[in-house]
């Protein structure tokens, strides 16, 4: 019974010493490496995140500036139209019922409109409203299916009501929100600019309205140079509805829409960054939030006040977190493999070193158990103890053998 207990103690001792030494070696070697790796990874992640966010912010600012400048030019075009002699001198005649020169005035104004439509290339339709808001002259692009009609009452449209309030200001020019042209029918989305017309005497005689071709805005948003494969920019309205189409076919692939154009002013975006920008009325940077596809994205969300209605837009610049931090993730994986390799190497070396140190102790423990059981046949000169070398363990082992021999001699005598 005692022999079995001693054997268990022997096995436990042998396992315990080697295990402890091996663990010590691993801790001494791995802890600093792991600590450095974790610190480096966190620092690198923070640095890359900051750089990416600054890049997204810069892209957003550049596009916001380009868009604001472009809309300013559109307002300038409209204002310039009101100052042309043809419009300023003939608008009153064109808008006055029964005026003898009415037909000729309308023809000249429409000829000018048609010419400008071709020259500018950025408008779908140009309209002249009389002082009461009725259409008296118009020109539109061939194939434009939402054109207006002569005599149509547009006095409830924002592009009439806002300028009419400011009709005494000869320099006033209005830019609408990007919105449904008809809030009831909701058949198409439009953005317009309009400007008041004054004759040579300074009297208010009408309003010129331009329906803006928004292809430039979509083109600007779809230009994702510098944003990798997953990056995109787009525009939302003051509620978070799409104003430009997505770069990805997510909605079509999911069967939610037949065409991405159907998402405009229909699909609401609930991305945290967008809603936070609208709520705080300020630009927002997000290192990670879930986008409309359910994917974690890093983004900048620019709060814009461009239109004359005081309704904000949000210009979004986003990129998938996985792509934004791809370099960091790759380096992290490499670091993990380095730690694993070092752990394996240290384990092998640690085992060899631990075995070298623990084997003599285990042998000494075995002999000590025999001596405790009355076996005094061991001496310090045989190979049973493996007492080679001059280190402390070897000296202790030989001394134990010598002690055993002396005890045996004393008992024998």
> What's the β-strand tally?
11
In the sheet with the most strands, the strands line up as 2-1-7-6-3
Shape category: rod-shaped
Low-pLDDT sequence parts: none
Mean pLDDT: 87
Tell me the strand percentage band.
15-25%
Distance between the termini: 32 Å
Number of helical elements = 10
Helix/sheet category: alpha+beta
Domain HAMP: 355-412
Keywords: Membrane, Transmembrane, Transmembrane helix
InterPro entries: HAMP_dom
Transmembrane segments: 21-42, 334-354
Task: Write up this protein.
The protein has 10 helices and 11 strands. By secondary structure, it is of the alpha+beta class. The protein has 3 domains: 2-47 and 328-412, no CATH class; 53-69 and 216-324, PAS domain (Beta-Lactamase, 2-Layer Sandwich), CATH 3.30.450; 84-213, Beta-Lactamase (2-Layer Sandwich). Strands 2-1-7-6-3 form a 5-stranded antiparallel beta sheet, with helices on both faces. A hairpin with an 8-residue loop joins strand 10 and strand 11. The longest helix has 82 residues, at 2-83. The radius of gyration is 42 Å and the shape is rod-shaped. The two termini are 32 Å apart. The mean pLDDT is 87.
